[in-house]
Amino acid sequence: MKFDDILTELGEFGPYQKRIYFLMCLAHSCIAMQILAGVFIQATPEHRCAIPDLPNDSFASQGHWHDALVNASIPWASGDQTFDQCKLLDIPDGRHNETVPCEKWVYDKQSFKRTFVTAADLVCNKRKLVTYASMVLMGGMLIGSLVLGILADTLGRRKILVLSTLGHFTASLCVPWTRNYTMFVIIRFFVSFFGTGMFLSAFVMGMELVGPNWRKFAGNAMNLFWSIGLLIEAGLAYMLRDWVYLQIAISVPLLPVFFCYFAFIQESPRWLLQQGRLDEASKVLENVAKKNGVVVPETIKNLQDVVQEKAEKNLWHLFTSTTLLIRSLIIFLNWMVSSMIFYGLSLNSGDLSGNIYVNFVLMATAELVSFLFALLVMDITGRKMLHCYSMVVGGVACLATMFPVMYGGNDVNWLTTALSLVGKFGSTVGFAVIYVYAAELFPTVLRNSIIGICSVCARIGGILAPFIGDMIKFGGKTQVLKNT
Known about the structure:
single chain, mainly alpha, Growth Hormone, Chain: A, disordered C terminus, Organic cation transporter protein
């Protein structure tokens, strides 16, 4: 007898599974807000050099006298009708072209009262540090995927879920109190490290808890909560406009989530069976039957037959079959590419023309629509076909952004944004499908480890995403690089 047969008798998606599954979905909303918080807390507003000996200098004009002083102190940026952001005229009357680097800056506060970038002055020659911070964040996800994904297979899903949630909450709440770049980067590393353990464990537990007929729904509905979390974050960011308050606001909900996991989540019975812990698995399944209002099946009282179907395999089994190895490598590669486009467009949504909050909401909405589309169409087209076509659509749309950027003016900026949204749609559908596809392809004993390795490949793509936009700075052509 297979474990799925037991779930069919207990109810594939009964009241018990629905309550636990909802709690697993909350993990996705919380983690989404933390990972994409960098769009707001690491945003770089318009800025220029602070005028020396003017203590109340501001980016906004204070009158004609202030405009005249700025014109006399700040050079024009070459090839643009804007002030240079990093240089100051060395001669007060501005009659000469000698310039010196800025020592202090003033920032436009229309969109943000304060970001970490403005607090630490991570502009001009320190601009790269913002990209490095995003790299370290994705690096934390990479290490977390590898370490915590494998630990969840050996120590248990619940234990890693609870510990990761506690670590994620603690690290997230420490971020607002950092006042230097090094500590900010280190703590954000642990935010993503523990967040990934929380994310992976919640995803695998959610998939293992439901019956086969509901597994597609379970894999995609979790993704909807990711987008919902981003929409909530956009609203909070718009209202608060301060990186410290925003970080606190998205960290506090993790505490009740932790207590819910600690109090209400039981170990995955499927994992307990694989470990040969029959009595514990039986107790969990009896509780499922009780909460679902069904009579405890006799099969639960004798789980030995289910356990005997366990395949004695480990990760090295992937290398014993050429076909299995090739298919695994294809899955890993697709995770990396999907992640690079997915996170690249999200993390760089603030660089699109227009309002950063509107752009972020548009990206989150595109994700939400994409996840719903994948949920509705996946069974009709099949996993493989839908993933391939969606990636082609996303890739073509991203490549097409080069035409309005290189050959159009500001009046077609909307087209660049529209193409980016189409690219986001395609990459998100592809990402949603590959998640479910990978979880269905591999056996329980390998599932968390394989999903962990897939997530490692995804984080490699994620690490590359922040750097794409910084590889070359050719004016507007930067956006093309970010989208391709």
